[in-house]
UniProtKB/TrEMBL annotation:
Listed name of the protein: A-kinase anchor protein 7-like phosphoesterase domain-containing protein
Cross-referenced Gene3D superfamilies: Cyclic phosphodiesterase (3.90.1140.10)
InterPro entries: AKAP7-like_phosphoesterase (IPR019510), AKAP7_isoform_gamma (IPR052641), Cyclic_Pdiesterase (IPR009097)
Pfam families, per the entry: AKAP7_NLS
PANTHER family tied to this protein: A-KINASE ANCHOR PROTEIN 7-LIKE PHOSPHOESTERASE DOMAIN-CONTAINING PROTEIN, RNA 2',3'-CYCLIC PHOSPHODIESTERASE
Organism name: Branchiostoma floridae (Florida lancelet)
Upper taxonomic lineage: Eukaryota, Metazoa, Chordata, Cephalochordata, Leptocardii
Origin superkingdom: Eukaryota
Length: 222
């Protein structure tokens, strides 16, 4: 789907992302499962409340990037181009990509996430991410992270925005012992119906999700 060998390494100094390309997670079963895990952790450590990801904002990140005001239109075009390049089978209503979430993991004890279960869908998801990155790179829009795509669903996270409040409560990490008995839990599956270009800085939508600058959907009318 994406052009192999396309340059996807940012050619400048590192900057903080202000936009993301994401797949929104809306499945009710997944949301209920995520909330049960969050509540179980908070029952042991209520001071972690600032680290909880709202259910309305659950998503799988395909790309993080920094856009200047004049680059947003090019990013919208790149998003539409990515959809146009995706294998035609993905655009058929009867053959949607489904992402099953199973088990928990952590990044350096500052992020707790649900893993994407093993299976053929992982290769398809990586192809989608590669296509998105390639289309953005062709417009000189590069990721702010490295080029390793590790699909996951973040449930809790210590960030620059909440770190001060958590430290004031004596919290510097999310101990794995808080979710030890929940590590292998199955959360359900999310159908991939499209993806969005979202602003990380603008006011969120009324439903709590990121401000969506552009979205594409699979299937007729997308």
């Amino acid at each position: 789907m994406g052009k192999k060998g396309a340059k996807v390494v940012p050619p400048g100094t590192a900057v903080l992302p202000n936009y993301t390309v994401a797949i929104r997670v809306t499945n009710d079963e997944i949301r209920r499962g995520v909330r049960k895990i969050q509540e179980a952790v908070l029952a042991h450590e209520p001071n972690l409340e600032p680290a909880i990801i709202p259910l309305s904002n659950l998503h799988v990140t395909l790309l993080m990037l920094h856009l200047r005001e004049g680059q947003v239109q090019a990013a919208k075009e790149a998003l539409r181009q990515a959809k146009a390049r995706i294998t035609p089978q993905l655009l058929q209503p009867f053959n949607k990509v489904v992402i099953p979430f199973e088990g928990l993991g952590t990044f350096a004890d500052t992020t707790v996430f649900a893993k994407v279960a093993e299976g053929g869908h992982l290769a398809t998801l990586r192809q989608i991410a590669d296509t998105v990155r390639t289309c953005f790179a062709e417009k000189n829009l590069y990721p702010t992270d490295d080029n390793t795509f590790l699909p996951h669903l973040t449930l809790m996270k210590i960030t620059d925005n909440n770190q001060g409040k958590l430290k004031s409560k004596g919290i510097q990490r999310i101990s794995p012992s808080l979710y030890e008995g929940l590590r292998e839990r199955e959360l359900g599956s999310q159908s991939v119906e499209g993806f969005q270009l979202c602003s990380l800085r603008k006011k969120r939508q009324a439903d709590g999700y990121f401000h969506v600058e552009e979205q594409v959907k699979f299937g007729p009318g997308g």
